[in-house]
Amino acid sequence: MRPLIGITGNQLLEAAPAFSGISVAYTPIGFVKGIQAAGGNPLVIPIGAPETAADYIAKIDGLLLTGGQDVSPYFYGEEPSLHIGATFPLRDDFEMALVEEALRQKKPILAVCRGMQLLNVQMGGSLYQDLAHEYAEMSVQHQQKTDFKYATHSVIVTEGSHLHSLVGGKLSVNSFHHQALKVVAKGLQPVGYSPDGLVEAVEATDPEQSILAIQWHPETMIPEARNMRLFFEDFVARASR
User: Fold this and answer.
1) Domains of the chain, each with CATH number or no CATH
2) Looking at the whole model, is its pTM more than 0.90?
3) What positions carry a catalytic annotation?
């Protein structure tokens, strides 16, 4: 059977003419197509009550944490800076519960961009709220002006990591984020860095947890970029075991 992959959904909070001003639950189509092409069945999980998280996780074979709003600094004990973007605490609460349950039930996780940041915060880490004002070493473009389907900077991959087994020692990625991992959670280990030293990928330190979290957006680079399809193929394979 094709594994069932839960994809965290977002909610359109602002009125959009295409939907006659109606709020919409959604996920970027690249995630759906990436999972389908890799042999999985995607299931978009709409934002809901945290107490429903256990039921969702019990039914799926893997959890895909997607991009979106900034994670509220409330969850890592900081006040919001003047440069933080829009947050969505209801989504944060629900996805924190999904992560907690996925870890408890030992379900595989693939986390992308905000997903990696939320995973890190849920497990006890923290974030740079805005790189331009908090990360003095920044020297490459992390909010690219080029179309998302193209790569913009490189990532150096740690030898011996699961990520290294997928893509080798270096790959080129796209980049659209103004936040990043600051203090890495104890249950996670960095396995990829940007040229200016930011953590771009993490994996679980516990061999019983199957986790790969990345800062870039592979879903916008497929189907053209073969190495970006690998992330979905690997995730579906991990969820099939």
Assistant:
1) 4-239 (3.40.50.880)
2) yes
3) 113, 217, 219
